[in-house]
């Protein structure tokens, strides 16, 4: 599977810029993106960022050059729109950037790949304070660096609201990708990470509840178990997904693509004390968060029955002949998760 690694090209020195906003700074008002200008704003976004060895040519040219030693690239993209996917009064610009990286990184991790490079398309109104763009870029850059990936390119355009479009490139490093379509009757369904906290955090923000900052923080910046995708493939898993729309909804994608049914074993998913306490205060059912809450970006995978689950994975159900997803054999009546254009939810 491995092809020869491309010859390294002399690495680019990091782009450095002097502070271009200095001349606009005035007490009491932040400089806007229009005042700073497109190119200086982009330059600020990439200034001083570290690049991994897979980035052969970084930002500063018409295109970046990224090594794809495997010969295959796992690629995924995601858009976040202000007012629909985030609110700048609920999340800092840095958090929005970190979340964008987590959402995209989780998608390639769910396939068994490692994220190596991110591309970022940003849109914003011209009167957006440049600190908002700087913050989003900083969050993206820091989060990418933390998982060993680089931000290799991007674009900035004028838009009606702040829009963050992130594309991730992932390296399978010779592994067989985890597909949604490869689950088989008899497989064990396992989960790495937890579900429900992000939905709880969103509900707390919507209710203007000031407590449970641990849950709110998970909503603002999820922490996908990136390594778990790799360990799942190595342990023999065949199918996988990240939990972005809700546990039952995402397992439903695997069931449908594999032509099988999945039963979730409810006792394996007991909500923790924090979820129970938050649900008690909001007068809601924590199981709804566990089963239908999106955006935690835990990973789910289907392992052959003889496989030994790697560290960080725990059994939550099984695959069987049939179709659909049930909880202990019964259908779950609440809405099954978030669909962007669905009628059940309208975030
Ligand atoms: Mg996904």
TrEMBL record:
Keywords: ATP-binding, Kinase, Magnesium, Metal-binding, Nucleotide-binding, Thiamine biosynthesis, Transferase. Mg(2+) 4 binds at residues 62, 76, 107. One of its GO terms (molecular function) is thiamine-phosphate kinase activity. Residues 1-32, 327-347 are annotated as: Disordered. Pathway: Cofactor biosynthesis; thiamine diphosphate biosynthesis; thiamine diphosphate from thiamine phosphate: step 1/1. Belongs to the thiamine-monophosphate kinase family. This is Thiamine-monophosphate kinase. The lineage of its organism: Bacteria, Bacillati, Actinomycetota, Actinomycetes, Mycobacteriales.
């Amino acid at each position: 599977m491995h092809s020869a690694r491309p010859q390294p090209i002399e690495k680019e020195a990091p782009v450095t810029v002097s502070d271009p906003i200095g001349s606009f700074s005035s007490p009491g008002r932040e400089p806007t993106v229009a005042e700073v200008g497109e190119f200086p704003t982009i330059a600020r976004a990439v200034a001083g960022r570290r690049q991994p060895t897979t980035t052969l040519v970084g930002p500063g040219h018409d295109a970046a050059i990224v090594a794809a030693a495997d010969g295959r690239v796992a690629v995924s993209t995601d858009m976040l729109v202000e007012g629909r996917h985030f609110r700048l009064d609920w999340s800092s610009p840095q958090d929005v950037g970190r979340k964008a990286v987590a959402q995209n990184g989780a998608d390639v991790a769910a396939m068994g790949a490692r994220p190596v490079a991110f591309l970022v398309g940003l849109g914003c109104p011209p009167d957006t304070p440049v600190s908002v763009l700087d913050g989003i870029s900083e969050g993206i850059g820091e989060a990418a660096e933390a998982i060993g990936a680089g931000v290799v390119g991007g674009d900035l355009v004028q838009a009606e609201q702040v829009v963050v479009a992130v594309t991730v490139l992932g390296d399978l490093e010779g592994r067989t990708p985890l597909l949604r379509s490869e689950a088989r009757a008899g497989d064990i369904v396992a989960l790495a990470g937890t579900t429900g906290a992000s939905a709880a955090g969103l509900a707390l923000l919507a209710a203007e509840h000031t407590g449970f900052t641990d849950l709110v923080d998970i909503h603002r910046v999820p922490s996908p178990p990136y390594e778990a995708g790799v360990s799942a493939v190595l342990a023999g898993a065949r199918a996988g997904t990240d939990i972005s729309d809700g546990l039952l909804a995402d397992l439903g994608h695997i069931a449908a693509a594999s032509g099988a049914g999945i039963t979730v074993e409810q006792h394996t998913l007991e909500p923790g004390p924090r979820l129970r306490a938050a649900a008690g205060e909001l007068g809601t059912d924590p199981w709804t968060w566990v089963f239908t809450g999106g955006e935690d970006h835990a990973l789910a995978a289907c392992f052959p029955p003889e496989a030994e689950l790697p560290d960080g994975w725990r059994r939550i159900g099984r695959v069987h002949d049939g179709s659909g997803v049930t909880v202990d054999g019964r259908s779950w009546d609440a809405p099954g998760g978030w669909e962007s254009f669905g009628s059940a939810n309208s975030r």
